Automatic annotation (TrEMBL):
This is TetR/AcrR family transcriptional regulator. Coiled coil: none annotated. PANTHER family: HTH-TYPE TRANSCRIPTIONAL REGULATOR RUTR, HTH-TYPE TRANSCRIPTIONAL REGULATOR UIDR. Pfam families: TetR_C_41, TetR_N. The lineage of its organism: Bacteria, Pseudomonadati, Pseudomonadota, Gammaproteobacteria, Chromatiales. Residues 25-44 bind DNA. Keywords: DNA-binding. It comes from Rheinheimera lutimaris.
Length: 191
């Protein structure tokens, strides 16, 4: 069953990226997976459920990649900034644009309510708590700050995906994200 699920997600990811959710045929993607519609219904309920699984996989992959970029930084503060900027820049990737940032919200609704976004929110909150403990950030409600930073990165990514000039928008969005986040710095941490 796990193999069938993985095959359907892989086929759907390819079909949704190439054609978009609306144009992707369930018959074509199940045939590409070597399975039947029954397998799709059994594993995901419907095409929308399959999209939710694909979005969750891609969004989780994005978070993992952003966290790896953050881990390469020399300190936690630079890591937090690098992670947010990396997430924003991923909006330039065609698969991310079409599936996660355009089709996902149109079909699945508010991205801030997706399980993968909730996981990112909690990870950001933990990082903020650490930075406050280290004296890098001002004392602030970490849930509020995490929601605002995560929301800023997500909305920047949505802006890029909908833009006619995504490269130019990305540069502006990353710069504004860094400036916004820097407002949380404790006076002693400002260099």
């Amino acid at each position: 069953m796990a193999d069938n699920r993985a095959r359907l997600i892989s086929a759907a990811r390819k079909a949704f990226a190439e054609k978009g959710y609306a144009a992707a045929s369930m018959d074509e993607l199940t045939a590409a997976a070597g399975l039947t519609r029954g397998a799709l219904y059994h594993n995901f309920g419907d095409k929308r459920g399959l999209l939710a699984a694909v979005v969750d996989q891609i969004d989780s992959d994005m978070a993992q990649r952003a966290q790896q970029i953050a881990a390469a930084e020399t300190d936690s503060w630079q890591g937090l900034l690098a992670e947010g900027a990396a997430y924003i820049r991923m909006a330039l990737e065609p698969e991310v644009q079409r599936i996660v940032l355009l089709d996902g919200p149109a079909v699945l609704g508010d991205p801030s309510q997706w399980p993968s976004q909730s996981s990112c929110l909690q990870a950001t909150r933990q990082k903020l708590e650490l930075l406050i403990t280290q004296g890098v950030l001002k004392p602030v409600d970490t849930e509020a700050a995490a929601r605002l930073l995560s929301g800023a990165a997500l909305n920047a990514a949505l802006w890029i995906a909908a833009s006619a000039s995504p490269e130019a928008v990305t540069a502006k969005a990353v710069e504004a994200f860094r400036m916004l986040a820097s407002g949380l710095l404790a006076p002693s941490a400002i260099k």
